[in-house]
Amino acid sequence: MQEDFHYYATAAAALLAGYSPEESLEIGYASQYTDCCSRTVLKRLKGPKGAATTQSKTELADARTDLLGLQDITRIWSSFHFLPGDLYASLPHRGRRYMQKYRLICQPRSGLVKDTVQLAEGSGTVEAGLAMHVLADTWAHRCFAGTTSLVINGARDFYEIRTEDGVRKEQKISFNHNPITPDDVDRGNYTNSFRRDEENAIVNLGHGHAGHLPDYSFMRYRFMPAWGNYEIVEKDNPAEYYCAFCQMVNALRFLSGSEEDFDPEETGSPEAEKYRDRIMEILEKRQLLASEDWKSFWESLCGIPMEDFSQEKYEREYRESAPGDRDSTFLGRFFIAAMKQKSMVTNKIFRSGNLLAGLSVEYLNGGFKGIRDFRKLVELKERGKTDGKP
Amino acid sequence: MEAEIRKNRDMLYYSGIGLIVLELWDMLKNAVFIWLDPRVLAYLSQDLEDPLDAPLYLQKIVVIAVCMFLLMIGLFFRMFIGLNAVGESKGKKKGKFYLIMTALFILIKMYSTGREVFIRTTEQELFLTSFLLDITTIFAAVQIIYRAVRLRKLTGKRKPET
Q1: What distance in Å separates residue B45's CA from the closest CA in chain A?
Q2: For chain A, is the Cβ count within 10 Å smaller at the N or the C terminus?
Q3: Interface residue A230 vs chain B (CB under 8 A)
Q4: Cα-based distances in Å from B157 to B86, B147, B160
């Protein structure tokens, strides 16, 4: 998903869940910042590198694809953008290596989505925003995995599905590999990653083979994923984005205390249903970015102007704070929330017997071993600020 | 069933392509066997008595032309099978003739491969490589027949789109 959904739509969902306009903007900001917080940004801010929630294109181009490099990539992308749907999936006649990757395929409505939301329970808007990013991406990025794998993330035979005068029509989608040329929605000309037949090549990460199609809310398309055994997958982005929106409202109502429980299977929301037509109109409009429309929707809900997303909004506060006070700043809390999320997901993957995200140490039981940045979570627990879940 | 049809079309396509590509190897191998055979080299390089009373150079030209002709026959044979397999994989209707030719090709190839096993005249490494590639060629040809027959059965069973 893109900024239009992660910031503007998430803020709108927060309003419908009962948050104030200021809180909704904080939630939206934290959600969108998940797509910005790379190691390059952390280095600039002098923040903990373990809190990286994404990798920039430059970082990916330089990323190592040896064992440790692949584990690092998988940890980041599986924790924040491609939450695994079923870590214990089974298929007949498949080897161990294949199944490890297959089990990382992102699907919505999973147990890990519930764990992600519950991890933010009792915390503030920052943690809620991070959780909403992860939740929303499970809908857009389903059927792809947050690891580099041609046999899982490879895909071909893309057709856009349109309905004209009640008749279903399919138009073959042609891809080019020039990242500079913008996607042309009218001619069906889109950009995707070029093909490399090496299994662990960076271009085989996530939905690279599908280009930006999963991130366009208006897109309805079908394709054949490599893992599907020649089955066709159809994706109806408007419907799925609407489910993501409703699920965000439900999750935020749970986090705000208005609901007792969050059920990831529930994809309807009475609060969102009132505005269904308006929301679907935004989602189905053929445009690369729907920020202005979501912004208008947010403004219509609360009656005040909405500020646009600015990455630097809270960065100065973090940079200028004393080292001892940084954890209580907006970004300080974001970094801690990111490390908690990454820890939780990596631990779940490791405990399922899958080493693709690397090793995970239960530091509460075995003492601290591992990445220095994560010592912060132990220290915070000792200071009584966190529940210390792995 | 649609997934099964797609799978068979894919396998048929790659088997057809594989057969054509392996033909390049076969042509190279045959060219090496013919032109680097010591008896052929001796014949081409030495002045031998002409039993047919024809000029020697004309005889050599005929020999070379016959060899090239046989190589081209092999090439067109495989191209015919391979291109028909590729065409069928893309949904074009094809008859039985090319499948019969494929079966004939398999028999010839099995005979020549088996003959090479028992009457080996080549170096060990070259033989092993040649043997493995010949087996691959036979496998590709068998795949073509299997996939084409399976595809025809499945498309015959598929209900026409309303």
Answers
A1: 48
A2: C
A3: yes
A4: 22, 15, 9
The backbone torsions φ and ψ at residue A270, rounded to the nearest 5 degrees and listed phi first, read: -60, -35
| Interchain CB contact of B10 with A (< 8 Å) | yes
How far apart are alpha carbons B12 and B94 in whole angstroms?
13
CA B36 to chain centre: 21
**pTM of the full predicted structure?**
0.86
d(CA A33, CA A26): 10
Q: Which of residues 65-124 of B touch A (CB under 8 A)?
A: none
Residue B50, chain A, CB below 8 Å: the answer is: no
- Domain regions of chain B by residue span: 2-157
pLDDT digits (tens, 9 = 90+) for A20-63: 999 999 999 999 999 999 999 999 999 988 899 999 989 998 88
Q: What is the ipTM of this complex?
A: 0.75
| One-character DSSP codes across A240-299 | HHHHHHHHHHHHHHHHTTSSS---TT----HHHHTTHHHHHHHHHS--S--HHHHHHHHH
A139 to A37, A214, A271, A296, B73: CA distances (angstroms)? 21, 9, 20, 24, 56
Helix then strand then coil, % of chain A, to nearest 5:
50, 10, 40
- Residue A62: CB partners within 8 Å, gap ≥ 6? none
